[in-house]
Amino acid sequence: MDSNWLFPSIVISLLLSNWGTHVHCQTNIFPVVESDAELTDSKQAFLDAWKKACATNGGTMVIPKGTYLLSDAQFLGPCNGQTKFILDGTIIATDVPTPNINYWIFFRNLNSLSISGQGTLDGNGASYWKQKQTTILSSLKLAYVKNVKIQDIHSLNSKKFHMGIDNCQNVTINNVHITAPGNSPNTDGIHVGVSDNVRISNSNIATGDDCISLGDGSTNINITGITCGPGHGISIGSLGRYPAEKEVRSITVTNCTLTNTQNGARIKTFGPSTPGVASTITFQGIIINNVTNPILIDQYYCPNSQCPGQGESSVSIKSVKFIDFHGSSGKPVGVKIACSKTNPCQDIELTGVKLTFNGQPTTATCSSADVKFNGPNQIPSRCT
């Protein structure tokens, strides 16, 4: 071949190759392409973008900057490889949720999912909170999803739960921002149930119920770097309400700050209750600022005094450690451990606890529990 043609041929070949790669990359990105000018329900546009992203290996669904009204949406799998959901805009829920469902935005049956972006899920919950609603509706619900990362997004004013993680494995939630007024009912920040290997970190949660709640079947959970308040604290439970609940075990909560919350570290079970187990639980490095119940185990939990009668919990609580709790209690009692008479708590340890009320030492009340205070100079230092 004439050498004069060799260089141009190579250049053209490279340009075509790069252009093809660029086109291929672009075809992996599927934005929601509906005008937000009239704020009509964008459900179909969302589902169309998801369908394309789900069918593409490495497909990415993008919600561009702007405001979108959405009644509800199910993003179902399985998908062809990892799927990404990038939220850069603001999605607003309709005033009235779709009847007979417990979600607003629902991801289900996926093997690899990433949810990220600087955008906001606005649950539009203010009018809903005034109504008597029994359905626990989650703004963002995941079920039967494996290998998921949720990062950076904002959740605002959910109608009930902000995030619900159910029957999931290998979940990482990092740097999320969750906000609702302190008087908004049942607006748990993140609720986890029947899920394994969940990591929640470096997030700010201000809400009207538990900042994080762990239901039955929560195992191998690591929570760290959470700023919580207002809210009801970081809770395990409530447990023992339903038959055949699964064991809760291997829970670690570290380096969290709770401010003006109803509770700090709490374990709650119904009394009476169905059988269950909660074990191998550690709360460590917790800063407490004006928290009403800094350390609480309550096996007589009865919300709104609507329990079917007084009785003892059948949930066994054992191997629980409270380590390095420092700060101010909102009541003279800084530690309350109220366990079942028929199933006393076993192996409860407090180490490095220093809690004061109005500058004075707090006290600890304990019943039906094997409680040890390890080390000197603890406040409180013993059960009364």
Describe the protein's architecture and organization.
- The chain is mainly beta.
- The protein is 10% helix and 51% strand.
- The protein has helices at residues 3-26, 43-54, 126-129, and strands at residues 29-31, 60-63, 67-70, 73-76, 83-87, 90-93, 103-110, 113-116, 120-122, 138-151, 154-156, 161-166, 169-174, 177-179, 190-193, 196-206, 212-214, 219-228, 234-239, 248-259, 263-270, 276-291, 293-301, 315-329, 333-338, 345-351, 354-357, 360-361, 363-367, 369-374.
- It has a 30-stranded mixed beta sheet that branches.
- α2 (43-54) links the parallel β1 (29-31) and β2 (60-63).
- It is elongated.
- The N and C termini lie far apart (97 Å).
- The model is unreliable at 1-25 (pLDDT under 50).
Number of strands: 30
- The residue-averaged pLDDT reads 91
SS field, number of helical segments:
3
Report, as a whole number of angstroms, the end-to-end distance.
97 Å
The Rg value, from CA coordinates, equals 24 Å
Helicity level: 10-25%
Unreliable stretches (pLDDT < 50, length at least 5) are 1-25
**How would a textbook summarize the main sheet?**
30 strands, mixed
Envelope shape: elongated
Strand content: over 45%
Active site: 232
InterPro entries: Glyco_hydro_28, PbH1, Pectin_lyas_fold, Pectin_lyase_fold/virulence
Subcellular location: Secreted, Cell wall
Keywords: Cell wall, Cell wall biogenesis/degradation, Glycosidase, Hydrolase, Secreted, Signal
